[in-house]
């Protein structure tokens, strides 16, 4: 009987360890635009999170051996792992949000915001150009082996935020770093959309001269057609440079490891463990 109860306790421990291993991956997948754009939902999303967590399972199981599992510990660890995964998704999702914001800026300038799409995965309206830019960036990212790099970054996060720690330790500069990430999104979006926006602004200037020379023309109705035509021509020309610009955006991910170290404050963690 005693051996049977011991076996049950051991099985319960392994199940709990598996749940905590998946929690960080699940929080990461829920926030990162890469997976939401690929329409990973429900069972498929959970399956991907489990697949990503399998290589870490033996090491995480050993790390959790010394944890005294209670109801409070279970809740705190689960929430902490989801929170850390969400932080990882926020940091690594910057280029994808920048690409979507660039498309939104372009569509706003060409007056096609009424053609926004309802994306059931993103739970908000997205512009057609923003969707195009984001999907293009995702294709480049996956083709360049970015998924392996991203998983390596997530795996390394267990060194910064150990799974057995009840509370994640963030540095005093965390707020400034998150604000800097917002600035990076806006800067990348403006750089990416700048050539097309300039072309559309020039078309506005030309339409202004046309309206002054021929007041009887309905310039507003013409502007929608003219801007769409200019945008289509510029996009064909810009496509040759778009790949390079997006590659420069993805270079931000190479610094993600250092950024996460700045967020985690390893020295603070060391002091706390003493």
Automatic annotation (TrEMBL):
Transmembrane segments: 13-35, 42-60, 72-98, 131-151, 163-182, 189-211, 217-243
Keyword Cell membrane applies: yes
Protein family: Belongs to the FliR/MopE/SpaR family.
Entries under PANTHER family matching the protein: FLAGELLAR BIOSYNTHETIC PROTEIN FLIR, SURFACE PRESENTATION OF ANTIGENS PROTEIN SPAR
One annotated GO biological process: protein targeting
Protein name per UniProt: Type III secretion system export apparatus subunit SctT
Keywords from the UniProt entry: Cell membrane, Membrane, Transmembrane, Transmembrane helix
């Amino acid at each position: 009987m005693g051996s049977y109860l011991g076996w049950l306790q051991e099985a319960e421990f392994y199940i709990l360890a598996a749940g905590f291993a998946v929690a960080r991956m699940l929080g990461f997948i829920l926030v990162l635009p890469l997976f939401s754009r690929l329409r990973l939902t429900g069972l498929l999303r959970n399956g991907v999170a489990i697949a990503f967590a399998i290589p870490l399972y033996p090491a995480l199981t050993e790390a959790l051996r010394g944890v005294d599992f209670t109801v409070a510990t279970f809740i705190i660890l689960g929430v902490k792992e989801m929170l850390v995964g969400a932080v990882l998704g926020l940091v690594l999702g910057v280029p994808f949000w920048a690409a979507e914001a660039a498309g939104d800026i372009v569509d706003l300038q060409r007056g096609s915001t009424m053609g926004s799409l309802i994306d059931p995965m993103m739970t908000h309206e997205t512009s057609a150009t923003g969707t195009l830019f984001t999907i293009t960036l995702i294709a480049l990212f996956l083709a360049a082996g970015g998924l392996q790099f991203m998983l390596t970054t997530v795996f390394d996060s267990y060194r910064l935020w150990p799974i057995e720690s009840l509370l994640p330790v963030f540095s005093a500069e965390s707020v400034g770093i998150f604000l800097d990430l917002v600035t990076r999104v806006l800067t990348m979006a403006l750089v990416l959309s700048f050539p097309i926006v300039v072309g559309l602004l020039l078309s506005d200037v030309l339409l202004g001269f046309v309206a002054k020379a021929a007041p009887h023309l309905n310039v507003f109705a013409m502007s929608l057609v003219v801007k769409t035509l200019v945008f289509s021509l510029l996009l064909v020309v810009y496509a040759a440079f778009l790949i390079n610009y997006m590659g420069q955006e993805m270079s931000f991910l190479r610094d993600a490891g250092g950024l996460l170290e700045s967020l985690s404050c390893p020295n603070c963690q060391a002091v706390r463990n003493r």
